[in-house]
Amino acid sequence: MSTSNSTALNKVEKKFALPVGLRDAGTLLGLVVIVVVFSILSPNFLTEQNVLNILQQSSINACVALGMTLVIISGGIDLSVGPIAAISAVAVAVLMAAGVPIALAIPIALCFGMAAGGINGALVTFGGLQPFIVTLGTLSLYRAISLIYTGGNPIFGIPPAFRALTNSTIFGVPNPVVIVAVLAAIIWVVLNKTPLGEYFLAVGGNQEASRIAGVPVTRTKIASYVISGGLAAVAGLILVGRLGAADPTLGNLWELDAIAAAAIGGASLMGGKGSIVGTLLGAIILGSLRNGLTLMNVQAFYQLLATGLIILVAMLIDRATRGRE
Amino acid sequence: MTNVVVDRLKLTGIGKSFGTLRALDGVEMSVRPGTVHGLLGENGAGKSTLLNILSGVFAPSSGHIEIDGVRVAGHGPKAARRAGIAMIHQELQHVPELSVAQNMFLGRPLIAGGVFVARRLQEQAAADALAPLDRSIDPSAPIRTLKVAQRQIVEIARAMMEDAKVLAMDEPTSSLTPAEFERLAILIADLAAKGVSVIYVSHKMDEVFRVCETATILRDGRKVADVIMKDTTESAVIARMVGRELAVAGHQSFVQGDIVLEVEGLTRATAVRDASLTLHRGEVLGISGLVGAGRTELLRLIAGVDQPDAGEIRVRGRRLPLGNPRTAIAAGLGLLPEERKREGIVARRPVSSNIALPSMRRFSRFGFMNRRAVARESLALMTDLNLRPLSIERPIGQFSGGNQQKAIIGRWIAAGAQILLFDEPTRGIDVGAKAEIYALIEKLASEGRSMIVVSSELPEILRVSDRVLVMREGRIAGVLERDEMSEEAIVALAVPQSAPRAASISRS
């Protein structure tokens, strides 16, 4: 009995890696195609320095997209990530300017982001409103808060120690890349190895069935928005460090890039499906595209065109290869 | 032989199969002009299928339909309409925000000047059609402002506007008050007087006897009798509907003395009214009743899925907080929902995840899921339940209905549920899997688990239940012990009816 069980287990475990992995392999293939094309077109594309550049440029979007992926998996959407990043950025800058130590200012700013996410989650669950509408509302609301508080002016005077956090490297890898990689690993573990991850997938896959099966639906949904808010805040802080100022208008249209990365990576906007690895690859695809086109001196208008086409082509390929589902 | 009346509606050898399931077999039926003809049978006897064939929703696998001696050409709802068959569904199908007139002309508006909808003309025509039926209905009012009875009248008016020769009504009185029924009965009589043939489908025997002149009785997809109402009785008709003496053999009881579940005065709006019951250890309590009698609703209230307005639930003497599935599960309850796809499974997730869903806390250590334990236990359960294929990581949506059902049962076994609430456990699954589910129910009872089984299939109820609770219009109409159980006794309790029937129940 035990031997037959364990062989059966081995068999299924091997099988089980496939379906998720297959979709990620597809995203990876897409990335490889883009990299190959650009390295042929531009000799400067596939250099160590430029690859690090691409990763660095993609890191902020990747960070936001990680949270977005969890929200999308659990059947929601978060349009308010950009303004949440701005609120957190303003918070951290104001706190540091007021003399609050960096080690305290950062967690407080992250709490701002998570609280904003918590409000989104509460409106979706207790308020019973649709996630799109809720976060469309808070998109304006949160942006207004950071604009009103700052009077629309950027906050300068970021301490050099804070800037060093985002501008230095570890073994040659820019810190933002390392930070986002670590966060991605944590989120991957949450999604794949914890009950909460199982709940995200279940609630997004079939909310009513999950409720009947005893899943804490409300808590699960709120958790996804809180994590999304927290990760948006991290992205906001990284940008503050990079720019040396907290602009209350920062994060404009971040939600669209994040949704695009998640979708290219295999997340279904209907919920119940998504991949952390895929989202990272999706963010890198978008980053590579922009970087490559810039290297080739392509006008910004055409970059926008290319981004749009990539999203649509990726989705059409996804649809065609899934075929009969 | 000059005055031979041609049948208004004639069905010849109508058969319908869904895959291997034979829903209708060689049904013959004829209705004369200006007659109100009942169509009777238990749930699943084939009434709905026959109505769907009549209104063109399904194409019959065999046989044909004639109207006034002319065979209905072509298939589909349009062909049926053209032939003069109109249908009034149990669930009225309207667009709530559109006006009465707009709804009456939905899909074939009156056009003026080639492009514009002639609203005024439509409203005039609608008013003309409504006038003989009910002058109080305003054709320009949004249909959502109308009561159900009025909306039904709109449907009848629409059918009249289309010059329907045959009007089929499916359970038209399921949400009408007695006074509204009286009005409807008069309306139907008027229609018949104008030469329209009405097919009247209802569970309510008193109504059928009041409204219909003749009726066809279906059982298991076959016609068992044509009756003339004035020459028969309610009990004779019910006996025909139920028919066979069913093998109740093979039932084993594992009931033990102690009470595990007490429900008292559970109420939710008009769906469930003042329902009380007790369940013993190892007992299988069947719940029977007509569709819409409140069976599913009662089960959902007990499982904490819906919030009751009043009432109390005690599990092993301890009061259960109401309206919370999580506390119900913690108390050892588990619900196998009626609509498996919508409420049971998370289709995209592996079977193992679906099984482990309520037991996440038990399956995790230090906040991390123990996937190995989930896999080991799922595999053991699936082997036990004979769930095929034995592949724990395959998405549950790719399994057959019977196997999905076993997985949900496995879910509750894994969660340690001692009280299982089964809502139509064998709906949509094949005969072999059915037998397995019955055997499983018996096995679970032998292990000391208690079950409440809601089913529309009387043979199923008789097969698995130690006691049967019959619901009628949201209330518990009666409880039958094992030795009092019969299809007749259940139907007698389930069907809303006139008083004299009580005598025949006590006889059985």
How does this model look, in words?
The complex is a heterodimer of chains A (325) and B (508). Chain A has helices at 2-41, 48-73, 81-97, 102-125, 131-150, 160-167, 175-193, 195-205, 207-212, 217-243, 254-264, 276-295, 300-322; strands at residues 169-170, 173-174. Chain A has 13 helices and two strands; from the N terminus they run ααααααββααααααα. The longest helix of chain A is centred in the N-terminal third of the chain and has 40 residues, at 2-41. Mean pLDDT of chain A is 91; it is low at 1-19. Chain A is mostly helical and 325 residues long. In chain A, helix 2 packs antiparallel against helix 10 and helix 4 runs antiparallel to helix 5 (131-150). The two termini of chain A are 35 Å apart. In chain A, strands 1-2 form a two-stranded antiparallel sheet. The model of chain B is unreliable at 245-249 and 498-508 (pLDDT under 50). Chain B starts with 8 loop residues before the first strand and ends with a helix. Among the domains of chain B are: 9-84 and 164-242, P-loop containing nucleotide triphosphate hydrolases (Rossmann fold, 3-Layer(aba) Sandwich); 259-347 and 417-507, P-loop containing nucleotide triphosphate hydrolases (Rossmann fold). Classes of the chains: A mainly alpha (325), B alpha/beta (508).
Provide a quick synopsis of the model.
Chain A is an all-alpha fold. Chain A contains 13 helices and two strands, in the order ααααααββααααααα. Chain A has one domain: Orthogonal Bundle (ABC transporter involved in vitamin B12 uptake, BtuC).
**Low-pLDDT segments, ≥5 res of chain A:** 1-19
- Kindly estimate the percentage of residues of chain A that lie in beta strands according to DSSP: under 5%
- What CATH calls the topology of the domain at 259-347 and 417-507 in chain B is Rossmann fold
Provide the CATH top-level class of the domain at 259-347 and 417-507 in chain B.
Alpha Beta
Helical stretch tally of chain B: 18
Adjacency order of strands in the biggest sheet of chain B: 6-9-10-3-11-12
Mean pLDDT of chain A: 91
User: What would you say the CATH architecture of the domain at 259-347 and 417-507 in chain B is?
Assistant: 3-Layer(aba) Sandwich
